[in-house]
């Protein structure tokens, strides 16, 4: 919806994404993202359906099933890699 409450359709080509990592195919490469000190922001287009609890998710899963567990595992990897350095957190 626009500012007037009218339905609109708009397509945007995102040129800033130049590399894709599939955590199901290369979980090590996914976790390696956490080691990159240049990454400052994490974005997600996950809908409510994707933010769900899976009781079977475990920190040792490669990868976990749910999106929240995947993100939590990535955050843990970063925390451990940078030894909890406050200036290495993500926004």
Automatic annotation (TrEMBL):
Tree of life domain: Bacteria
Q: Which InterPro entries match?
A: NAD(P)-bd_dom_sf (IPR036291)
Q: What is its EC number?
A: 1.1.1.58
The UniProt keywords, alphabetically, are: Oxidoreductase
Q: Could you give a GO molecular-function term held by this entry? A: tagaturonate reductase activity
Nucleotide-binding recorded as keyword: no
Q: Which SUPFAM superfamilies match?
A: NAD(P)-binding Rossmann-fold domains
Query: Is Oxidoreductase included in the keywords of this UniProt record?
Result: yes
Q: Which residues form a coiled coil?
A: none
> What protein am I looking at?
Altronate oxidoreductase
Species of origin = Citrobacter freundii
**From which lineage does this chain's organism come?**
Bacteria, Pseudomonadati, Pseudomonadota, Gammaproteobacteria, Enterobacterales
């Amino acid at each position: 919806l626009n500012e007037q409450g009218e339905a609109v359709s708009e397509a945007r080509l995102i040129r800033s994404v130049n590399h894709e990592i599939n955590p199901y195919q290369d979980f090590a490469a996914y976790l390696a993202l956490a080691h990159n000190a240049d990454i400052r922001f994490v974005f997600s287009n996950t809908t409510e359906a994707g933010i769900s609890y899976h009781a079977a998710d475990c920190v040792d899963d490669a990868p976990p099933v749910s999106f929240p567990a995947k993100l939590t595992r990535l955050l843990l990897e970063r925390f451990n890699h940078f030894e909890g350095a406050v200036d290495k957190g993500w926004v």
